[in-house]
Amino acid sequence: MAPDDQQVHPVVIQDGLTREPILAFVTAGVTEAEAETVDLAWERALYSLLARILSKTKGDCRPPEHLGWSWRRKIANRSEPIPPVFFALRCGNDTQGMMAVTTGQPSRIPIQIGAPVVYIEYISTAPWNLNDILSHLNDTPRYRAIGSALLATAVQYSRDSGFGGRIGLHALPQAEGFYRDACEMTDLGYDREHDLRYFEFTEKQAQRFFTGDEA
Length: 215
Fold this sequence. Notes:
The protein is α+β, with helices and mostly antiparallel strands. It has a single domain (7-209), classed as Gcn5-related N-acetyltransferase (GNAT) (Aminopeptidase). 31% of the residues lie in helices and 31% in strands. Strands 6-1-2-3-4-5-7-9-8 form a nine-stranded mixed β-sheet. The radius of gyration is 17 Å and the shape is globular.
């Protein structure tokens, strides 16, 4: 999938209240203009939520660690010769999640050391889907399972690239439990270069996550 092709494929997420499955769509290829629209919508929503929380809890809330990310700048600054591919997950006329991936980084897991992986450079969810933030207001997310749907997209992209589903990422501290416990990725420990913990899927782990089967 090339970044400018705007290829679209369906994914399943959940209704935030009922947890019923909902069809959404992931686009591979995001323009700067599209990303700027996302940045503006997410920024307004996030600061509105944080202001409401501050007035209610007197500051007892940790903002999301991706606060201040600009997807437009990330797209504008993508480097050659192999720039990241940007994905947008859309549902209900809004962008619910974003992700950027690159290909070819070597695996760090001993059983597949050196084999290429799809590396997730960035991944985030729209503020109105962040349960950790909304729980301070006793609100429910608009949608759930956005992160899982994007991770499954990365696994499929890895398969399409001939990497068997192998993916890797550095996790922000607030997301470590999600990747380690919910997704059952291999925790390869703290990486001093990035000042973050590094996680990977083996092909078998990717298969189990993607389909629920052991392969």
